Amino acid sequence: MGAFEERWRASLDDPEAFWLDAAQAIDWHTAPTRALEARPPFYRWFPDGELNVCANALDRHVDAGHGDRTALIYDSPVTGTVRSYSYTQLLDEVARFAGVLAGLGVGRGDRVVVYMPMVPEAAVAMLACARLGAVHSVVFGGFAPRELAVRIDDAAPVVVVSASCGIEGSRVLEYKPLLDKAMELAEHKPGKRVILQRPQAQAAMGPDDVDWAEAMATAEPAASVPVAATDPLYILYTSGTTGKPKGVVRDSGGYAVALAWTMANIYAVGPGETMFTASDVGWVVGHSYIVYAPLLVGATTILYEGKPVGTPDAGQFWRVAAEHGAKTMFTAPTAFRAIKKEDPKGALLGGYDLSGLRYLFLAGERLDPETYRWASDLLGIPVVDNWWQTETGWPICANPVGVEELPIKPGSPTVPMVGWDVRVVDGSGQPVPPNTDGAIVIKLPLAPGALPTLWNDDDRFIRSYLSAFKGYYLTGDGGRIDDDGYVYVMGRTDDVINVAGHRLSTGGMEEALASHPAVAECAVIGVADPLKGQVPRGLVVLKAGVDRPEEELRTELVALVRERIGAVASLRDVDVVAALPKTRSGKILRRTMRGIADGVEEPVPSTIESLDVLDALRPVLRRGD
Ligand code: COA
Ligand code: AMP
């Protein structure tokens, strides 16, 4: 047995011993005496422990004499800014912003919605909530007001923190009008909004709006508040199969312990070393590996405001990694496909010294072997695929390079990490033999840091994840495990799609299309795309008697999805069709249509109502082959 396999087995055979030992990486207000409390199907980690995650991320490094170390580097080619914060400086900002929030009535357990672009103040706001024991819910800046409003209504925040604008490539995107619109749409009305005025756009302020800089100028620093390990640190909404997002709850203690474990054993970044995660604080990768994990271990994190290409060129990732001496870089495969498209030979790498870069980690969507090979040939370092979800908070599968570098098999995110008991089952829940495709499930309990439940919705938590196979968590991904225990994740088995590393619900887009007065019914499917992995395609059937030019309708429908969900939905392709193929019970055959569009047609279900309808659709679906 290899060194890692031994640890993995120990974590499953004796989780109490394994995780209590791992918990020593964290400073506890009250150290836990137990690791796991099981009340199936609910599990809680470190039930009697108390800690503050912000104090672990900041104060303890300062207290240990490392206040001068760099905590965060903000690198923003879109504004021409590079700014560093030492641990002492970041702690000062965070403590004062916690004071601002406290002054606005935010206390332990209260929610704060953060709708921010990639600026350091986003991380400051998150950590300030953690300091007070408040629960942040960051909403990705690419989401439209309606999506923001749905999240505000569900989280019921006391305060919303936002900024005057984000910068998307060369465009200044004003956030305040989007926030104002969301406030109109939301039923829940937060008391105050704190707005960071950026020089690129000044937001018009109302009576309930507080200026970030003004409030900070007079703020008193707030002390950290110890909370139960099982208290929520944040809620992060993610797409389910319907239009209603799921509020993934993250606990405090389990998450802190798990993240600290990953930094040493997966990402191989320790105190004083630098991690460059090019993602967005609106996604789970950003929560875990831009903000919390690097700071928990006293490392330096880079917060990059820019794109992989076009801000201004495809060499920015190399520049940032070289200039700030990153040891580990982490992003989504789609970002590398974008760079490859612009600079196929990697010529822009030439000018930069990347000798300090030891590993590239890629996650968020399947890492196709071609992108894997391109990145690994170009950089000449291990390229580590890692598979996880908003729900899990950290990798289910990865290559534990901090323990030992396992051989890489392109197309596989390697093996399950400690605490994860991953299985592949058939439709009736029976385990399948190695190398056989099926549903990927995880035997309960999930590892520390994984969602204990959905916000205010235990029933949906059980319904969505735990009811398909008793005792197992349904990942929603399909795939297989080979003879060496390597896991292959092939894609979602539900109606969730992954567009440029952004997880989106086709159900949500269908709701938007269906709201158009001319639409009788519709379907949205995710089809393969060489750059974004998948892109959505809409198919609509018009109401009887609607007689309007198709082009005009298409434009309206595309605009509608953009307005309702946001630009990230990237729905550009809508076809008007005569009918949609269905089973006899009326279920639309999305999977069959997706197969046809991707050129991997599967046998048509025997319950299909009308083969004619499907035959008529084939030419439309195959367009773009
Ligand atoms: N705020 C506002 N708008 C945003 C946004 C944000 N944070 N992020 C994206 N958008 C907008 C874009 O401006 C674009 O708008 P447009 O249709 O008006 O041009 C739209 O949403 C689609 O954006 P995107 O999916 O990012 O496509 P792109 O063509 O602009 O860029 C990539 C393609 C591959 C470069 C880009 O998707 C990328 O960097 N992906 C990496 C994603 C990632 O890191 N995911 C995290 C998981 S690890
Ligand atoms: P998110 O919750 O946004 O992180 O998206 C999670 C989903 O992205 C997973 O359920 C997978 O479908 C997909 N995903 C993430 N990482 C990988 C990976 N390394 N390989 C394959 N799919 C991935």
TrEMBL record:
Domain AMP-binding enzyme C-terminal: 509-587
A Pfam family per the record: AMP-binding
AMP-dependent synthetase/ligase domain ranges (all copies): 64-445
Domain Acetyl-coenzyme A synthetase N-terminal: 5-57
InterPro entries cross-referenced by the UniProt entry: ACAS_N (IPR032387), AMP-bd_C (IPR025110), AMP-bd_C_sf (IPR045851), AMP-binding_CS (IPR020845), AMP-dep_synth/lig_dom (IPR000873), ANL_N_sf (IPR042099)
Top-level taxonomic group: Bacteria
Homology family: Belongs to the ATP-dependent AMP-binding enzyme family.
Name of the protein in question: AMP-binding protein
Annotated source species: Pseudonocardia charpentierae
